């Protein structure tokens, strides 16, 4: 049970590593990053963060080994690889503004990962998420069941936490579904949102619900404005939940970015949809019956992802 996290000297990657280690099911988490320079000196952020986290093992009570490295040979034989390498957003930026720089990084990292773990499963976290997942799929040559993006668990967690606070119930008791791209066009679905199985509309009026849907869509940007960089606690926890579901073959049902081949009327495009996650990655893409309004919103979201993908292909042609 070996997990690799690339970009683990950064905020999201180190949070994924820590969350996986604390869950204590893996033998080893390999934390990869590059050698950075600070004030003229070389620094090794993934080695530093790995050591710091390992020093917390007696307190958190885990024995998962944390191996900070800059050498991909250490990643050999990884069951699951999480890619968080890349640059985060700054205030005023959209996720799509990261396209060119992160596409090059994700391509490079994916090549190195599959060289050493040719049958791995890849979870992409770098943004713009849906297109970066496509880059990882095409670069790796892996089956589409083995490449996915982390977005839906995070976006629904934001939606659920906002609803819980508004209604005054535990976030554990809010269930929700959200589809579409990881951006402002994402599609939270109130019709599939419940409080312990009871329709959400029984607990909240339409205007407030709409306000929360809109806040969810801009949830990442809200944090970028507060912190000057993008979020890591909830994204890291969400990616760790996907790693656990796959490695423990849990058959969990989550919204994840999956490569669609006809499902939801989309072809060869990553989009957030409910999937069953377990051994081997995506075991099933689940199709729900959408009404016309929901399908229209999903199509709009897909159009947006298509436009960013087109921009990526044009960049590659150059
Ligand atoms: N190989 C390995 N690591 C790399 C590479 C590379 N080619 N290029 C950059 N990195 C590392 C950086 O050195 C840094 O440690 O990726 C890490 C990114 O960490 P942060 O700058 O803290 O960014 P973070 O907030 O973690 O976001 C990373 O996740 O949620 C997304 O939009 C976010 O795309 C961004 C990514």
Automatic annotation (TrEMBL):
Keywords: NAD, Oxidoreductase, Tricarboxylic acid cycle
Pfam family, one: Ldh_1_C
Keyword NAD: yes
Lactate/malate dehydrogenase N-terminal domain: residues covered: 1-149
Catalytic activity: (S)-malate + NAD(+) = oxaloacetate + NADH + H(+)
Function of the protein: Catalyzes the reversible oxidation of malate to oxaloacetate.
Record family assignment: Belongs to the LDH/MDH superfamily. MDH type 3 family.
Name this protein carries in UniProt: Malate dehydrogenase
Organism listed in the record: Fodinibius salinus
């Amino acid at each position: 049970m070996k997990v690799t996290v690339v970009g683990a000297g950064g905020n999201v990657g180190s949070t994924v590593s820590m969350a996986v280690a604390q869950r204590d099911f893996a033998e080893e988490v390999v934390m990869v990053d590059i050698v950075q320079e600070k004030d003229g000196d070389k620094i090794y952020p993934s080695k530093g963060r790995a050591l710091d986290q390992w020093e917390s093992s007696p307190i958190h009570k885990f024995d998962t080994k944390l191996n900070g490295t800059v050498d991909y040979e250490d990643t050999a034989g990884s069951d699951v690889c999480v890619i968080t390498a890349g640059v985060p957003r700054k205030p005023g930026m959209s996720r799509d503004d990261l396209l060119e720089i992160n596409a090059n990084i994700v391509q490079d990292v994916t090549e190195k990962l599959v060289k050493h773990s040719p049958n791995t499963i890849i979870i992409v976290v770098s943004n713009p998420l849906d297109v970066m997942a496509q880059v990882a799929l095409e670069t790796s040559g892996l089956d589409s069941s083995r490449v996915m993006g982390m977005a839906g668990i995070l976006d629904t967690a934001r939606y659920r936490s906002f609803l819980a606070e508004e209604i005054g119930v535990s976030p554990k008791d809010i269930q929700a579904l959200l589809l579409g791209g990881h951006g402002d066009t994402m599609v939270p679905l109130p019709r599939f949102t419940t409080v312990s199985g009871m329709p959400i509309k029984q607990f909240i009026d339409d205007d407030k619900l709409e306000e929360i849907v809109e806040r969810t869509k801009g949830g990442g940007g809200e944090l970028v404005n507060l912190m000057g960089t993008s979020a890591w606690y909830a994204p890291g926890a969400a990616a760790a939940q996907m790693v656990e579901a796959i490695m423990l073959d849990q058959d969990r049902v989550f919204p994840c970015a999956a490569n669609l081949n006809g499902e939801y009327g989309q072809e060869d495009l990553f989009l957030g949809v409910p999937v069953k996650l377990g051994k081997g990655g995506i075991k099933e893409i689940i199709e729900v019956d959408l009404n016309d309004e929901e399908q229209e919103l999903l199509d709009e979201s897909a159009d947006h992802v298509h436009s960013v993908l087109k921009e990526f292909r044009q960049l590659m042609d150059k």
